[in-house]
Design a protein that fits this description.
It is built from ten helices and 13 strands. The chain is of the alpha+beta class. Bound molecules: alpha-D-galactopyranose (GLA).
């Protein structure tokens, strides 16, 4: 199994200007490397098949009109000719598209009016990056409407900025990069320090990626995510490094006794997760599925005990997964506090595994969990 390296500044071809078209933006699931992106570390997400679709048509005025496929959601109209302020969109999903528009306007782009009908096979609030999909989808749509383009990296960073400024979530770069750079059949090993991206092939004839939604809604805007980020920053400061990426496991072990308990546990997660991510990639290359799975279980335990971002329901899913024949590994995925677990499973046993997990989880929690098997999908794209 070989890896291909994508230049970190890879760009897209300038889109030809069009007035009616459709954009597909995938969600993402992170296989391993959790809460490491904002510590300049490694992440290994893949784009997934569930996605957001935007059917876009230009308008002769300056209104951005957003319509969703949900009957309880009224149509939204925003005058993109006026300056946009984050306060006007606080707490609403419209913060994501408006943040992107504001970012492009800051670059000097003239944003034309358009109508976008938004439909999704990707659940919101499941920790599968529906927000990043919406941001990157809108940015791509505007590129086509305007007939200009950003490089893929610029686009992902602009969308991350929209999330910081308009949604108030100080996220890392993983989600927007996964949605932008996703490649069919591959996971993306992203070095968040250098932004070097390696495409790691997944042997789909042997293993499948199973996503299990706990049914617990996850939200990053409630402050816990920002708190973890600040705690890592404090740990790095105490260790005298610019970011936790700068300190390896052996050095961390020497320095660990000088750290207060909280900073010790938070930094232990980040430093050991780095090792697990490298070991996971090696295991995938060697087709050592059980070894890869153990990295996932280790990651979950660390997120549960040291990083404290799991919840009872996710812990239960991971415990159940250990009991099923054909599951190599399982862990919570994404920001945590609810959302989904991801499992690496024997490709020939996915129906039995899904059935077992669903009925057991229902029995124990009363929640009917959504589960799905997904291939690694391509990144954001225009429909032909
Ligand atoms: C969220 C953030 C990402 C990343 C993950 C945790 O998904 O948006 O940037 O920090 O949490 O790995």
């Amino acid at each position: 199994m070989s890896e291909s390296v994508v230049a970190s500044h890879a760009g897209t071809r300038p889109p030809s200007r069009r007035s009616a078209f459709s954009v597909i933006a995938p969600g993402r699931v992170n296989l391993i490397g959790e809460h490491t992106d904002y510590n300049d570390g490694l992440v290994l997400p893949m784009a997934i098949e569930p996605h957001i679709r935007l059917d876009v048509a230009s308008r002769p005025d300056r209104w951005m009109v957003l319509e969703t496929d949900r009957s309880d959601e009224p149509e939204v109209r925003v005058d993109v000719g006026q300056p946009l302020s984050p306060h006007d969109f606080k707490g609403s999903w419209t913060a994501y598209p408006c943040g992107v528009v504001a970012g492009l306007k800051r670059l000097g782009w003239e944003i034309p009016g358009f109508h976008a009908r938004i439909s999704a096979t990707l659940p919101a609030g499941a920790g599968l990056s529906s927000s990043a999909a919406l941001e990157v989808g809108i940015a791509t749509a505007i590129e086509v409407l305007v007939g200009r383009h950003l490089s893929s990296e610029e686009k992902a960073l602009l969308c991350q900025g929209a999330e910081h400024e308009f949604a108030g979530v100080p996220c890392g770069i993983m989600d927007q990069f996964a949605v932008t750079f996703g490649k069919l059949g591959h996971a993306l090993l992203l070095d968040c320090q250098t932004r070097e991206l390696r495409q790691v092939p997944l042997a789909t004839e042997a293993v499948s990626v199973l996503v299990i939604h706990s049914g617990v809604k996850h939200s990053l805007a409630d402050g816990e995510y920002a708190k973890r980020r600040a705690e890592c920053h404090s740990a790095a400061r105490l260790l005298g490094v610019a970011s936790l990426r700068e300190i390896g496991l052996s050095e961390w072990r020497v320095r660990e006794p000088s750290l207060p308990d909280l900073e010790c546990r938070r930094s232990r997660h980040v430093v050991t997760e780095h090792e697990r991510t490298l070991a996971f990639v090696d295991a995938l290359k060697a087709r050592a599925w059980h070894a890869a799975g153990e990295c996932m279980y280790g990651s979950h335990a660390s997120l549960r005990d040291d990083y404290e971002v799991s919840c009872e329901e996710l812990d239960l899913i991971v415990e159940m997964a250990r009991e099923v024949d054909g599951v190599y590994g399982c862990r919570m995925t994404g920001g945590g506090f609810g959302g989904c677990a991801v499992a690496l499973v024997d490709a020939n046993r996915t129906p039995q595994i899904q059935q077992f997990v669903r009925s057991r989880y229902r029995e124990q929690t009363g929640i009917d969990p959504v589960t799905f098997v997904t291939k690694a999908a391509g990144g954001v794209a225009l429909l032909p």
